[in-house]
Structures are given as C-alpha cells and as structure tokens.
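Weekly sync, protein design subgroup
Attendees: M.S., D.O., the rotation student, P.L. (late)

Item 1: inverse folding check
M.S. brought a backbone from last month's batch and wanted to see whether the design step gives back something sensible before we order anything. D.O. pointed out we never logged the input encoding, so this time it goes straight into the notes. Structure tokens as presented (141 positions):
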C-alpha cells in the first residue's frame, strides 16, 4: 500500500473500499472488549422480544470497522482530527451466514491551508446505507 499524498488528492476520489464480515463470534468478542453485553447483540430470543429482526451488530463496532478502512488507508501520513457518524439502520447478523457490510471511503472536502481531508464513509448492508453522515477528518503532516 502506498502512502497517501495530500497534494495528489481530489474531491470525489475513492481512496479505499473494503467488504467486512460480521459473525456472531465477532459480536461476542466485541462485547467482551467494549463491555457492551446488551443481549440484543447475541441472543435472538431477546432481540425478537423487543421487536428486532434478530441479533444486531453493535453500532460502535460498525462505526469502528468503517473508520478502520480510512485509517488503514491514511497510515502514518497523518492523524485523525475528528470522526463522527449517526446510526441510521441496524445490521442484523444471521447465526449461520453472518452479515457483510461494504465500506467506501471518498474524499469529500479538502482544506489546503489546514492540510486536512474530510473522508466520507459510505457503509452499506443489504443494499441500504447503515451509517449516516459518517465522516473522518484526516490531518496530513
């Protein structure tokens, strides 16, 4: 992977794209790491009892893996100044098949004076966007 060069970026450039798989095992590991043991993230019966279609991926897990697509691209060329998102749709994780999301990182805004790039993250599951206004601001050295 090549190191990103701020001067070579243009608004609209797709800088990274990745498909990420969530499994029930991954959800349990994330619950342990984050301390979020809400049973809607690992028990179908509880999720269904509160009106959900089944076990859901943690919103912060979805946001975190989306951000990692941009930070893996950025590498040591800069640092993250801001990262934000809204959770707009759940990601149901099937017990057998899991769930696959696609993350596309696109340059949304460039500030040449500050040497920053806003990276817009499009996160899609089953044809629908699951994070709204997912944006990361990278400051280049």
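Designed sequence read out in the meeting:
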């Amino acid at each position: 992977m090549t190191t990103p060069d701020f001067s070579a970026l243009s608004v609209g450039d797709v800088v990274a794209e990745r498909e990420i798989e969530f499994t029930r095992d991954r959800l349990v590991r994330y619950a342990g790491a984050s301390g979020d043991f809400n049973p809607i993230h690992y028990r179908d019966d509880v999720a269904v009892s509160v009106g959900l279609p089944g076990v859901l991926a943690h919103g912060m897990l979805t946001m975190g893996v989306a951000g990692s697509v941009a930070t893996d691209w950025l590498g040591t060329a800069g640092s993250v100044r801001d990262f934000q998102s809204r959770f707009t749709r759940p990601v149901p994780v099937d017990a057998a098949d899991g769930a696959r999301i696609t993350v596309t990182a696109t340059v949304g805004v460039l500030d040449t004076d500050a040497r920053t790039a806003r990276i817009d993250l499009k996160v899609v599951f089953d044809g629908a966007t699951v994070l709204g206004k997912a944006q990361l601001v990278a400051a280049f050295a």
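Discussion: The mean pLDDT is 97. Residues 20 and 85 are 18 Å apart (CA to CA).
Action: P.L. to compare against the previous round before Friday.
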